[in-house]
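User: Quick sanity check before I run a bigger batch. Here is a single chain. Can you write out its predicted 3D structure?
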Amino acid sequence: MNENKVMVWIYTLITAVIAALATVFNVILEKHYVESGTGMYKAGTVTPEAFSVFMLVGVAVIIVSSILFGKDNLPKGVYGLPLFTAVVSLAAAAVLCYSSVTFLMSFKVDTFSTASVVEKTTYIGSFVAFPAAIYYFISFLAGKSTEKIQAVFSFFPIIWTWIYLLGMYFDHTIEMNSPVRVIEELSLIALMIYQLMETRALLGKSKPRTYLMVASFAIIFLCPTFLPTAYEWISGDIILDNEISCAVYGTVMAVYILTRLLGYSIASLGLRKRVKKPKPGGIFSEEEEESVISEKISDDALKEKHNEENEKVSDTENEGKKDEE
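Assistant: Done. Predicted structure follows.
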């Protein structure tokens, strides 16, 4: 039995539990322990430190769990839940288009030279967002025939995330060492690395164990960072502007990656032990994913048939010898 089948499901469950607990923990912190003006935690409390320790332990658990996976017997490629991944992909495309259009409509091009670095990066990012949205729209229509097109457009979400991260770095409205700012930057870095690993998989250069680990990192950082803000918008407490739409995008991406992880777990169920097929001349080809169970059954049947034929031949020969005697 392929042990990685069970491990992938346990891994996915661990990721979901850590992300859920981290989200609840961060909501409590932002409501009771964060100063709204500076984004810094209030002095004289150990709760923020406890959250940091929890996140470090979560990261350590993910890393150790990833190491436990065997190098073989893991699916290669990008998977998902057909319906859910399609809906979330469409949502990601819609959010990117909305945030870009609203910003471009409010931004005056003639003031570009005097605009702040944050506004300039956001302006450039607004144009990158459209091909990035195309990637998610293609994912909505995903099929074998669209994989090459997906691979081409998959670079744009990476670039968009990098531009967003760059704009955040130059944003001085929040303290540089603000915990709120730090976790948001870590979330975007995790998202960007995941997007890079997804691009590698689409290009046929998949690294399964790294892909799983990065997907988990992205989920456990994106959920506590952006989900509370997205919930406030859904509840009607805040208006959807460009900044809030980015938070909604982060939430959508957390769900998107989770559907990818669940799809990957399902794909691992149909995977069997990897075997090597010899090429003519005795040279082995690359490892291929095949069902050993079916091969074993067919091999056993052939062997049994071959043994029966040998027994018949030997019985015939023995009878012939007896007749001669």
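Residues 3-275 form one domain.

User: Great, the batch can go ahead then.
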